[in-house]
Design the sequence.
């Protein structure tokens, strides 16, 4: 199993779909199940042996930095400052590459949460990683075991583990669960600009270098007030 000790939490989003909850705070500091969305991600990293995590900040950046400074326990945090311009998922990772290093890293959205059922999901990703065959490995949630995701699904998973996006199909059986292993070489030649990680994934999928692993837990996408209420009820009920 590959050793991965560095990670990133994508926490610079504006959280517009979560309004009015995010009128006075960033989405990353919205609480569900007794802790912030950001801490759900960081606690998962800590449990998975991550030693250093880059967290990007933009919206309410000062509050984010105060929260991170007060946080007890691992992983050690480095802040990637996007106050001047939010760079989206792809651009944010490119900007953080000097801190992430040359080896494969975990990248996580902060609005995806779950309670583990069985083997830790980060370990499942680690065990499936094969750098000879892949440049990115996505955690995928079965659509039948999700909350807060109202789309028709993101992807198909081939028998050999390759990911195919839904494209023109009416529906797909899996949603991206918000965590991936990414090799920095997948971003080679890209400059710091505003772009989505989907741009990278589509190129990797076309080259047969994008793979997936199925999440074994019930997955919650906490992207709006309705999903927040549903997730809170499920976690505390």
Sequence:
């Amino acid at each position: 199993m590959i050793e991965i000790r560095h990670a990133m939490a994508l926490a610079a989003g504006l959280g517009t779909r979560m309004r009015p909850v995010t009128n006075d705070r960033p989405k990353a500091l919205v609480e569900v199940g007794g802790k912030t969305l950001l801490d759900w991600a960081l606690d998962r990293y800590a449990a998975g042996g991550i030693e250093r995590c880059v967290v990007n900040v933009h919206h309410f950046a000062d509050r984010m930095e105060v929260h991170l400074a007060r946080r007890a326990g691992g992983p050690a945090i480095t802040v990637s400052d996007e106050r001047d311009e939010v760079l989206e998922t792809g651009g944010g990772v490119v900007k953080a590459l000097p801190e992430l290093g040359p080896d494969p890293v975990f990248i996580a959205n902060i609005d995806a949460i779950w309670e583990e059922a069985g083997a830790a999901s980060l370990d499942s990703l680690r065990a499936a990683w094969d750098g000879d065959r892949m440049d990115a490995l996505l955690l995928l949630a079965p659509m039948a075991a999700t909350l807060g995701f109202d789309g028709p699904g993101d992807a198909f998973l081939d028998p050999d583990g390759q990911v195919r996006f839904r494209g023109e199909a009416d529906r797909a059986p899996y949603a991206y669960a918000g965590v991936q292993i990414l090799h920095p070489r997948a971003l080679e030649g890209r400059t710091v600009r505003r772009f989505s990680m989907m741009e990278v994934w589509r190129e990797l999928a076309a080259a047969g270098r994008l793979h997936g692993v199925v999440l074994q837990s019930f997955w919650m996408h906490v992207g709006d007030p309705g999903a927040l209420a549903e997730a809170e009820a499920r976690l505390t009920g």
Residues 1 and 127 are 5 Å apart (CA to CA). The longest helix spans residues 88-100.
